[in-house]
Please model this.
Amino acid sequence: AQTVTQSQPEMSVQEAETVTLSCTYDTSENNYYLFWYKQPPSRQMILVIRQEAYKQQNATENRFSVNFQKAAKSFSLKISDSQLGDTAMYFCAFHGPNNNDMRFGAGTRLTVKP
Amino acid sequence: KAGVTQTPRYLIKTRGQQVTLSCSPISGHRSVSWYQQTPGQGLQFLFEYFSETQRNKGNFPGRFSGRQFSNSRSEMNVSTLELGDSALYLCASSPGLVQPDTQYFGPGTRLTVL
Model:
């Protein structure tokens, strides 16, 4: 079974600085997607970034980028120029080719301090 | 396109009652998945519907059931409510035609069981 591990329950960063959130996963599949979702205190789960496993190039979305290490099964999220609005729970998630459900990590609570 | 919508946003029920939650997916999306989110267990997959058929099911008791209508709207029903059913229930939609896929989440329904 696929498992997703986020080893940092909580993190904090000063506004305008850079922070990296860690995620590791376990799978025997070769074709899968990895995601980072953000859940602010308002609760709506928002897609931050997606990485297709077959792509070697790391995905980027504005201030958000990932470091995808397929062999190491590692998928970290880097947030540059952190903003107060980045304060949220961040969930790493895995979606494989044969399962119709997504597996989530336990989440990392990120606080951006002014 | 309008996002995923869920109704109601909040519910308070007592033990033994039953409840029905509703989810309207993004237009054109045929897959709807349901998740239960609790502080202790995190995000857990309940089930997924695609073209009115349950395609995948998580490890929840039979008190949790769902259905999907021809317009892809989905309902989830919980019968004989227990205190432990208090949670945020999230639904997510995706096109559903290929796996893996990207899911987009609704705002959730907060269920409190007294």
